[in-house]
Design brief:
344 residues, 4-stranded antiparallel beta sheet, single chain, disordered C terminus, Double-stranded beta-helix
């Protein structure tokens, strides 16, 4: 099938702009005392069974009432604005391992975990490891650097704040549907290279004989009225450099324009994390970024975010040329009973 280029403005709830929420905080879901009690009861039940974290499934983490609310939140993420923030979980009263359990348990009601790195980690820890951003073997979340707008490797990306930074580290979201609408309105000539896509550096294989993806990965994919996005500019640039094939002027202009749009005050939404906040985003309709930050000097106060990459149980309409997000290196989901296994 051909990756059809959408030539019409998409008027959906996923096509929002940051200023739309200047007086609208409906995207923030405040946990009730009763819901917190349910989460804590589920944590206690799992711990009483002695289940390792990665063995905990949805049926193990029972949320009799809260699960109904989570279904509505998931519907909003998949078919509405594309993001939500859960606020009010008392993370400060628990050990890190207990917050991991609560976050993982909530995640089981939203999707299926996928791997986040070559080591197969399913629960990520986002914190400064003293690494230098820009090195081929360094991922941005291991640094204090500003991270440009990008997508990740899961269908749904979840972040849970254990400790915010001293200064900075603001989370930024942008609707990739809005970006597409703006590109179509102002520079429709950019759509063709974006739909054709780019080769990516294979970070885990950058120093091997096969350092770059064999096929182009589209930035945009459109099928059955559904628009999806995938973009990691740094890996595109690295692939072009590795191959000795610079981006064409039109390709570079298209990517630059998309990046400039995403950074615009008129387009993006900024938010600060509080302890216990859980941010949930649709990785197909939302691109995310982070400002640089200054950390606390005390190790126990350093910025620390837990991360989950989840796969939707409900399949998303995607053109053949646009790969489903299945974790780091396009690995398999832990559970795949709801869909056929991908054949290479």
């Amino acid at each position: 099938m051909t990756n059809t280029i959408l030539r019409e403005q998409l008027k959906t709830r996923a096509a929002w702009k940051g200023p739309d929420f200047a007086h609208d905080d409906s995207w923030i879901y405040h946990l009730s005392p009763e819901q917190i009690v349910e989460i804590e009861a589920a944590m206690a039940a799992v711990k009483s069974k002695g289940l390792p974290l990665l063995d905990v499934r949805r049926e193990d983490f029972q949320l009799p009432e809260f699960s109904t609310a989570l279904k509505e939140i998931l519907k909003e993420i998949q078919h509405g604005r594309g993001f939500a923030l859960l606020r009010g979980f008392p993370a400060a009263r628990y050990r890190v391992a207990d917050v991991e359990l609560a976050f993982w348990g909530i995640g089981t009601h939203l999707g299926l975990p996928v791997t986040q790195n070559p080591r197969g980690h399913l629960m990520g820890h986002v914190l400064d490891e003293g690494a230098s951003y820009g090195k081929i073997n360094v991922r941005g979340y291991q640094t204090t650097a500003h991270l440009p707008f990008h997508t990740d490797g899961g269908d749904l990306i979840g972040l849970c704040c254990l400790h915010p930074s001293k200064i900075g580290g603001k989370s930024r979201l942008v609707s990739s549907v809005t970006l597409h609408n703006e590109i179509l309105r102002n520079h429709p000539e950019y759509l063709e290279p974006l739909y054709r896509g780019f080769q990516y550096i294979r970070r885990e294989a950058a120093l091997t004989d096969s350092p770059v993806t064999e096929f182009r990965l589209p930035v945009f994919g459109y099928k059955d009225g559904v628009l999806s996005t995938r973009l990691i500019r740094a890996q595109i640039n690295a692939a072009a450099e590795k191959m000795g094939k610079p981006l064409s002027p039109l390709e570079k202009a298209a990517l630059d324009y998309m990046g400039d749009l995403a950074q615009s005050d008129a387009i993006r939404l900024d938010m600060d994390f509080q302890v216990g906040d859980i941010q949930l985003i649709n990785n197909y309709t939302i691109m995310h970024s982070r400002t640089d930050f200054e950390d606390w000097p005390e190790p126990e106060r350093k910025r620390h975010i837990l991360r989950l990459w989840l796969g939707f149980r409900e399949p998303r309409a995607l053109p053949d040329e646009f790969p489903r997000h299945e974790g780091y290196g396009q690995g398999e989901l832990i559970e795949i009973a709801y869909r056929p296994k991908r054949v290479a």
